Task: inverse folding
């Protein structure tokens, strides 16, 4: 009987090659994510940074740094997202955070307070939406009403753990009162705005200059006047996306360290990337079958 592909020797070789490659990606992603966490812990363990008076400023810088770390770590731990469809969403959020961080650094006490108050205001507005839903939504089921009630109560408790909700102002504009472009000008981040924020925003907002590259191919029928057909471009893994995540994280660490005059002994994320990408490239770029020579039986 002829063996099926699953029973064939070819399948064993194929599995070995694929396993080697996936192993290499696993090691790479583990190195990077450990480094991300080490860098964060070095700055947040035991609340070591902050003088105890600037409570809001310390809270905002410490938590924004942790948010940046969780975005970078999330990407590092999800190699399947290292493509043009998903990675830009994370990167755009990281760039947003870096811009916010730099902008707050320019006037820390005032702006960190505005940042927190705006967030509390947004949450208060959401609570009031739920409350009017409870007051007017006669058509809702009991389960819906119970859920809305619980969400409203939990959010209100979160607000009131920080401020009496009657004093929380709801601000409907942008919290900084200015455009991201202006914030970038003010912090000397014009290049970040032009070359990173804007292109990744196209991905986030599904603009044609993203969709036309990542979800389009020309129809092959010459009678159809070159219309395009939707598809999912399969380009993977693009480790450069991970490099960028390391870079934006590192730039945030640099702002943090400058503010607190802190020197870390943990290697910076981009250095960790450089160190780890070599072994990955070796396995990934090896000619098919070559890496398994020593194990190949007679
Ligand atoms: Zn067509």
Result:
């Amino acid at each position: 009987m002829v063996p099926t592909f699953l029973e064939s020797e070819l399948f064993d070789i194929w599995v070995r090659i694929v396993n080697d490659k996936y192993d290499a990606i696993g090691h790479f992603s583990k190195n990077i994510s450990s480094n991300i966490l080490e860098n964060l812990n070095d700055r947040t363990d035991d609340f070591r940074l902050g003088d105890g008076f600037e409570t809001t400023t310390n809270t905002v810088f410490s938590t924004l740094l942790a948010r940046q770390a969780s975005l970078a770590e999330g990407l590092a731990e999800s190699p399947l997202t290292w493509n043009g469809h998903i990675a830009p969403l994370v990167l755009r959020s990281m760039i947003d955070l870096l811009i916010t961080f730099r902008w707050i650094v320019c006037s820390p006490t005032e702006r960190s307070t505005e940042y927190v108050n705006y967030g509390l205001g947004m949450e208060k507005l959401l609570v009031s939406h739920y409350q009017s839903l409870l007051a007017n939504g006669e058509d809702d089921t009991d389960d819906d009403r119970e859920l809305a009630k619980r969400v409203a109560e939990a959010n209100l408790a979160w607000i009131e753990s920080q401020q009496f909700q009657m004093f929380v102002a709801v601000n409907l504009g942008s919290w900084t009162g200015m455009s991201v472009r202006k914030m970038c000008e003010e912090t000397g981040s014009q290049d970040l705005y032009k070359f990173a924020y804007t292109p990744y925003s196209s991905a986030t907002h599904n603009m044609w200059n993203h969709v036309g590259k990542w979800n389009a191919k020309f129809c092959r029928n010459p009678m159809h006047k070159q219309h395009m057909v939707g598809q999912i471009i399969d380009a993977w893994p693009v480790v450069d996306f991970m490099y960028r995540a390391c870079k934006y994280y590192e730039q945030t660490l640099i702002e943090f360290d400058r503010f607190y005059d802190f020197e870390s002994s943990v290697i910076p994320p981009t250095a960790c990337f450089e160190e780890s990408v070599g072994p990955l490239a070796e396995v990934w770029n090896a000619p098919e079958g070559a890496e398994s020579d020593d194990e190949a039986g007679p």
Remarks:
- The longest strand covers residues 216-218.
- Residues 8-204+236-284 form one domain.
